[in-house]
Specification:
Blueprint (H helix, E strand, L loop, with lengths): L1 H27 L2 H16 L6 E8 L6 E5 L1
Antiparallel strand pairs: 1-2
Length: about 70
């Protein structure tokens, strides 16, 4: 009788922790704002604006094709 109760309690705790984590991540980095900044940065590049690439990440820097985290 105790084993199903423990399993249920652990499942509820994991679901609550997952939802709290999603809520915290959603507040920390609004994906829509990041996407808009990236589109604006790419539009600036096409219009002849200068670019600055910073840190290591997964984006391709347009100046040298290195993987960077930020493109300004």
């Amino acid at each position: 009788m105790k084993k199903p109760l423990y399993l249920f309690a652990i499942t509820v705790a994991l679901i609550v922790a997952f939802n709290i984590n999603l809520h915290i991540i959603g507040e920390a980095t609004p994906l829509r704002a990041i996407a808009i900044e990236q589109v604006e940065a790419l539009a600036n590049i096409e219009n002849g604006g200068s670019t600055k690439c910073a840190m290591l990440g997964c984006l391709d820097c347009p100046e040298n094709a290195k993987k960077v985290k930020y493109i300004n």
